[in-house]
Amino acid sequence: MSGAAASEPPQPPRLLRALKALRDRRMGAMLILSFAASLPYGAVLGVLTAWLTEEGIDPAAIGVLSLVTLGYAFKYLWAPAFQTARDIPFLRLGGRRSWLVALQVTMAVLLCVLAFSDPSEHIGLVALVALIITLVSPTHDLILDAWRIEVARSEEDKDLMSALYQFGYKFGGFISGFVALLMAARFGWVVVYVMIAGFVLATVLGSLLAPEPAHSGRKNRSQISFLDSLPQGVVLPAVAIVSLSWLVAFVLIAKFVVDALVLETGASGGTFIRTQGPLIVILTVLVPALAATVLTFGYRGQAREVPAGGLPGSSIPPIVRTLFRAIFDPMMELVSRLKWGAVLVLFLALTYRFTDAVWGSFAYPFYLGENFGALGHSLDDVAIASKFFGVIATILGSLIGAVLIAGIGRMPVFFVGGVIAAVTNLLYADLAAGAAHLDAFLAFTHLDAPLVAFAEWAAKIQPDTVVLAEDQGQRMARLMITIFAENIAGGFALVAMTAYLTSVVNPRFAAVQYALLASLTMLIGTLGRPWLGEMIETDGFYTVFIVTFWLGGVAVVLSVLEWLRQVYWSSPGEHLVLEDDPVAAE
To answer: pTM (2 decimals)?
Structure first.
């Protein structure tokens, strides 16, 4: 054994391997494709709301656009349909690439339709097109997630592609946010949407550049399934329970869509996500996960290779086999491979982004409000500090995370990301308490003068030129340095989280496993919002930020335990790609 080890050539440093990998066409494709994931979301979630507001559309009608979060929140519901890559016959580009191209072209066309719609006359058409975009775009995202996992040749590849994805995604948000608003003020909304549609169409080049995962073209490729190792009397009830749970979830979603778009009851997407969202996640994620755990350990389910066409002579109905393979096989594979480590993965997915998930609902009340320790800033202040300065900071944070992952590895960055995401809550607590520490920091570093100068410059290039009052300078400096630090931490932590979740996913089940784990990252934040909202009214923002700091510490402790588990207790094949799964067709 020692002789074999001695004969192996020494590995170059991790950073050098990552830099060498950057020359690979997969990395260029990843950067381009991340724009296709980002642009439609920004175009519908942010830019469209601004357009409708400028057109004088009433808030009730704009509220219909709260549907945009629906597809992104629950895309895992249709992820099983795309677990197996099936080529589109008339494109013949491969299972993953053909769908990416088809969806990118579809999104570009829909954005053009949106560009030439008249919201003041056809608000129903605008809402319908926006809804379709927010179903097509998350479908594109889950296929893209599966592709980047399937084509990775090593752990370094997975980390680097995860980082490139987040970097490109955030930069795309800058284009569809700040740049789009500047162009709208000068050239109009039609030009803006045509521009965004053109960018999306250009990302087809990324799909053509991207290599197709080698296994997607194998028509006779065997599959892994746990079905044959379980008693039929157990399989049928398990599939029935999970199917009923998914059916109830679909009915809840369908009812909301009908209420909002057809009956026009004024149903709010935000309220739906907060109230019905947790129940839907429980029905469609936690119930199948619990059932998969019971089948894996309670009935000793084991993975077996089965022919692509299924088991000859099996008495289990085809629809049951299909549902089992689509839902149970990905979950049972994850549980059986990670064993007790699956509990850590689950809790990390639930807690790591807690502060980000909760903070989104309370950012504007804290920035703009006057009560409970809020700051009382104007919309112009927030636009300068958050939409310009903050977006740049997020991109920078993503870049720093990418470089560090390439240099020192995933788990150290994952740990640091959890720490800084928690610590930045203390900056907001200081703001709520009067910013004594922030003022001392600004005075010590002499950053207040350049930050005020930056705020004045950014105000001048806003679509409606803003003149900052003299007494706003110090307050703006505080806000910008806090948002800068929080967004740096957010971009850094998001890159780390994406890389971590990617590392625990089996390429054979990439679409379903990643979509399900990613959905859990927002669950606790969703459940925690009503509780923290009540705490704001009773104890103020300062107390809430202290509480979220300590809750962020839970993810820090869990990340340490996971780091130790991977170093000392992970199974030998936990992160290995199966030998019969070459990851990329050259």
So the answer is: 0.78
